[in-house]
Amino acid sequence: MTEHSYSSPPPLGQAPSSRIALLCPWSGEGPDPTRARHRLLRSGLLSLAAAGLLLGLLGLWSSWALGLAPAIAVRALLLYAGLALLVLFGLPGHLPLTRFGPANAITLLRAAVACWLAALIGQDLPPGLAWLPAPVAGFALLLDGFDGWAARRGGWASAFGARFDLESDAFFLAVLAGLAVDQDRLGPWILLAGALRYLFVAAGRLGPWLRRPLAPCWSRKAAYVLTAGVLVGCLVPGVPAAVAEPAAAGALALLVASFLRDVATLRRTDPGDRP
Questions:
Q1: φ/ψ of residue 222, rounded to 5
Q2: Long-range residue pairs from 122-125, CB within 8 A, at least 24 positions apart, any chain
Q3: Domain range summary for the chain, segments of one domain joined by +
Q4: Each residue's pLDDT tens digit, 235-268
């Protein structure tokens, strides 16, 4: 998970210099900016198409080999289509880089897996497949340790990549919480874990000081990873409620404390409070 602010990720690219650029993020002025944007758009579309194809093949395989309802694959692809539109809208923030890059590709794969997991919510799994969500979610969580590393090591870091990582983490956590409730592993109270970031963003619409950037903090990352890891563990069949519920409650408490600490930090640094 990115270490940027929950509600104030880095700005997506440079400010548009014309009304046309404001209305169409892919418009450019001059041949070089236009060429760079077009190259990035082609690279992004190729990556999105490849991930969408993998997701579609996963849906077909799960229906044919595992006996899952075809509606699961359809729902996953619809969710992915919405994700793809958001990616394309924010992609200019990846400039001046003109390739989607391996780091964003890893994040995209995580997001596609999260779409497939989200499609399982509300669906009855065939007998003997109750174990399936846990390893798939574990795989997605494992990938989370590589996109940031790839971005820093390969020089692929960008405002778009940080925002994409943040949004993917928030969506993944919300999906894990929804699955835990849907499969009767935890009570509805755990949905707060997935809703916290969105509540924070909504609060930022009322208090502009909540949209200020936050300094990197390892504990923020740790709170997310711990909460996601505990929720993945709760999806494993056979984990007793006497273990799952206290572990999830403790992880949620740490996540809430992380948000409250950031709120307090932003409040202390609010310029409006200064004389």
A1: -65, -40
A2: 122/182, 123/68, 123/69, 123/71, 123/72, 124/69, 125/68
A3: 19-270
A4: 999 999 999 999 999 999 999 999 999 888 888 8
**Residue found under tokens 């169409």:** 24
CB-CB contact of 250 with 232 (8 Å): no
d(CA 201, CA 205): 7
Q: Burial-class residue 188 by CB neighbours within 10 Å (0-12, 13-18, 19+).
A: exposed
Would you say the C-alpha torsion 84, 90, 96, 101 has a positive or negative sign?
negative
The proportion of the chain whose per-residue pLDDT surpasses 70, expressed as a percent, equals 86
Question: What is the residue whose two structure tokens read 């900016």?
Answer: 33
- Tokens coding 88: 């394309």
Q: What type of residue sits at position 136?
A: V
3-state secondary structure of 175: helix
Give the pTM: 0.85
- Asked whether residue 122 carries a pLDDT value surpassing 50, the answer given is yes
Tokens of residue 103, six digits? 């780091």
The tokens describing 258, both together, are 């992380």
What is the distance between the alpha carbons of residues 234 and 246, in angstroms, rounded to a whole number? 11
Convert the pLDDT of each residue in 188-229 to its tens digit.
Answer: 999 999 999 999 989 888 888 887 877 777 888 899 999 999
> Which amino acid appears at position 204 of this protein?
G
- What's the rounded Cα separation, in Å, for the pair 252 and 190? 7
